[in-house]
Write a structure and sequence with these properties.
CATH class: Alpha Beta
Number of domains: 1
Structural class: alpha+beta
Largest sheet: 5 strands, mixed
Radius of gyration: 15 Å
CATH superfamily: Gcn5-related N-acetyltransferase (GNAT)
Helix content: 25-40%
Strand content: 25-35%
Shape: globular
CATH topology: Aminopeptidase
Order of helices and strands: EHHEEEHEH
Distance between the termini: 41 Å
CATH architecture: 3-Layer(aba) Sandwich
Length: about 160
Amino acid sequence: MTSASTENIRVRRALQIDAEHISDFNIAMALETEGKPLDSETVGGGVRAVLSRNDLGFYVVAEHRDETVGQLLITYEWSDWRNAFFWWIQSVYVAPEYRHQGVYKALHEYVSKAAGSQGDVCGIRLYVDKDNKIAQGVYARLGMSETNYDMYEIEF
């Protein structure tokens, strides 16, 4: 098992050169959390789109000794009630050998600090599977709270 402490974790905004790692992590996450195999070309195209278009969002990566060990995606939701954006955390993944070592906490703190300094961000949101008690506990310990909203969708 590899050991990393939060002071040894470097967090930064992702660049085009990170596309392959991010795609691989997204594919691994979907398989692990939903048992869903994803098409690598489709995922790669989606990742490259975000990395080349700031209007879609941005990825944040965590590195330990120049190895990518975690990631998350930020997308935007405009709130007309608040005249500001919510940042949505999505596509969270930490490599299994780096879990429970503060990698997600480092990613979360980076995003919280960035959002707080923007001036046009009114909050951070995410969705989590109702059965994922571990993740819910992590998010609560980092200051996030449950909302009164349930999510509905139509897939095409």
